Amino acid sequence: MIQNVKLNLKYTNIKEKDMMKYAERVTQIHKELHEKSKNPKEFLGWLDLPKEIDKKELDKIKKSAKKIQSDSEILLVIGIGGSYLGARAVIEALTHTFYNYLSHEQRKTPQILYVGNNLSPNYMNDIIDLIGNKDISINVISKSGTTTEPAIAFRVFRELLENKYGLKEAQKRIYVTTDAKKGALKQIAKQEKYTTFVIPDNIGGRYSVLTAVGLLPIATAGINIDKLLEGAKFAQEKYLDRNLKYNDCYKYAVIRNMLYKEAKNIEILVSYEPKLHYMIEWWKQLFGESEGKGGKGIYPTGAEFTTDLHSLGQYIQEGRRNLFETVINIKEPASDMKIKADEDNLDELNYLVNKGLDEVNKKAMEGTIDAHMEGEVPNLVITMDKLNEYNIGHLIYFFELACAVSGKLLGVNPFDQPGVEKYKTNMFKLLGKPGY
Ligand code: PA5
Q: Which of 149, 267, 273, 289 is catalytic?
């Protein structure tokens, strides 16, 4: 069966001949990325990752996931930004909408909880309450190994585990994903002999979901990581075509930049499937941190329709005309339900009898795209046939590559994030951290 992610441009006013003016620049960027990806000093390890993934590391991930599934009711994932969002995005896209609320018998795999992605004491205390007496394991993820939010959370939950299980058993329940050599977390892991996974030097946080950063929690949730990687591998091959005309990923990067030049400086990633909420969050971080610098960049934001048509819909239809939308359209839902007849028809819904709810959702999508286009909001549509591991792997690679190319077209370095340091410096000064 052919499974793919297709970009549909028919809802934009972009003309093919104008788009093709970028062809030469895109080919140059393509060559530059692929030539430099061999250099371990460049942050381009993600480019060849799906095909070159370390099989031993993959087996170790699967083995650890099995162990966690067998001895834990909860996996606590500690991490922030690129060390958190990818795992959550994939898990929420591919598991039951109410995964964590199901009974263990229904779920068969541990609950996945996330901590260390904020500094709220309420959040932390509430997670402790939720854990109660349940058996847990921890996967602490930090490339630098020094990020404040996950470091504080790890201090709290490491102590909790040591008190609950004793030092030795706690050591067997803590999994560390960090740099191969550097950072405080690496030192702790070495000293305590925790099972450790490596975040390669040449892969930045927001491009790391297909490394152990994402794969260990994803595998623990029972998701087939081989299929996820297969989808990414398929995308890696598919987007090797340096010709803009045949490369949807590069088209997406170019069209964003063309729209940006027309003062459309806000992109809304839209989904009609609530399971994609964290996919949108992951995408926001990927593009926001990669492009928003030097006074430039499209502001990436997200919306879930039809929910947000009743909150943001008015603005999108008639507010400032600096928006465009990219819609993720999933052709076939995993399940559907038919609308039944009602004798009284007081709600006047009988015209929908025997239609599937998905058809109503799709008509809402079609109607919204047309309405927004009429309101001068260009719409790109990315269509995938199904929400499954293979297509999500494909989509991840699609967005990573598009982001790198788009950042290069914009004239920024898509692999650094100097602006993130500013709040940290101020916070450290205010907290009296030595050296600040
Ligand atoms: O994408 C990035 O580089 C960042 O969002 C980081 O992932 C985030 O700041 C967390 O950093 P670390 O993994 O070093 O704790």
A: 289
- Buried b / exposed e across 327-350, counting CB within 10 Å, b at 16+? bbbbeebeeeeebeeeeeeeeeee
Q: Is 182 a catalytic residue?
A: no
The average pLDDT across 16-26 equals 96
Averaged confidence pLDDT in the chain: 96
Q: What is the dihedral of CA 388, 391, 394, 398, to 10 degrees?
A: -120
CB 116 within 8 A of CB 78: yes
Matching residue, tokens 């993600």: 46
Q: How far is CA 208 from the centre of its chain?
A: 10
Tell me: the pLDDT tens digits for 339-383?
Answer: 999 999 999 999 999 999 999 999 999 999 999 999 999 999 999
| DSSP-based three-state secondary structure for 364 | helix
Strand, coil or helix: 117: coil
Residue with CA closest to ligand 1 atom 15: 142
pLDDT of residue 3: 54
Model confidence at 47: pLDDT above 70: yes
| DSSP secondary structure code for residue 68 in this structure | H
Query: How crowded is residue 419: how many other Cβ atoms within 10 Å of its Cβ?
Result: 12
211-261: pLDDT as tens digits = 999 999 999 999 999 999 999 999 999 999 999 999 999 999 999 999 999
Would residue 96 show up in a list of annotated catalytic residues for this protein? Answer: no
Please tell me the distance between residue 206's alpha carbon and the centre of ligand 1 in angstroms: 7
Indicate if 284 belongs to the active site: no
Q: How far is Cα 302 from Cα 284, in angstroms, rounded to an integer?
A: 7
**Considering only CA atoms, which of 367, 334, 338, 379 is closest in space to residue 355?**
338
Q: How far apart are the first and last CA of the chain?
A: 58
What SS3 state is found at 297? coil
